[in-house]
Amino acid sequence: MKALIGDLPDGWRQVLLKEICDLVAGPSIPSAVSSGDFPVVKPRNVGDGRLVGVADGVEAEVAAELFRYRLMDGDVVCVRTGGLGRHALVTSEHEGWLFGTGMIRLRPGDQVNPRYFNHYLSHPLVQDWFKRNAAGSAIPSISGRALGTLPVAIPPIEIQVAIGDVLGALDEKIAVHHQIGQATAELRDALLPRLFGDPEGLTGLGS
Predict the structure, then answer these.
(1) Can you identify the CATH homologous superfamily of domain 2-170?
(2) Which residue windows are coiled coil (predicted)?
């Protein structure tokens, strides 16, 4: 059948996102600060399919009032204002974290593998769908109602798991290379001023 991402193989089907996921828009949490004990995911914490950086936090009293906005392993968070199309898979490491303003939490049902679904959102034609369905011009945004109409290609669950495993393994390799590159850049930045101030320190570095 013809779907958003093209012709689907036999055994695949296309459904609307709202039919397979529970969608909840994040609340306004203006009191989130770096010292809080309960991390709050914001758009800046959403990287290339994963959560990144240091999250701000709220105190236990605030977190207790926001119980329905806590994240679970297997959730996917999506940026709804600015930077549309960015998304991240929630892992056990982030269990119990909160999600705040500018975010939508997607909780896949039993018929969807979370890793597969997270990678599906990275498909170029899905990313194009985000752009075409955004509202506003200066700061594009998408509502939960609109996001719920996203067509999602669903293969048999064993194929979902296989796709998620293959792409997940590649993501891990990308993350390792990124960490190596970051560490190398930090070493360069630390050496640069010292070497310019002490050229004799170059002796032996090339050996």
Answers:
(1) DNA methylase specificity domains (3.90.220.20)
(2) none
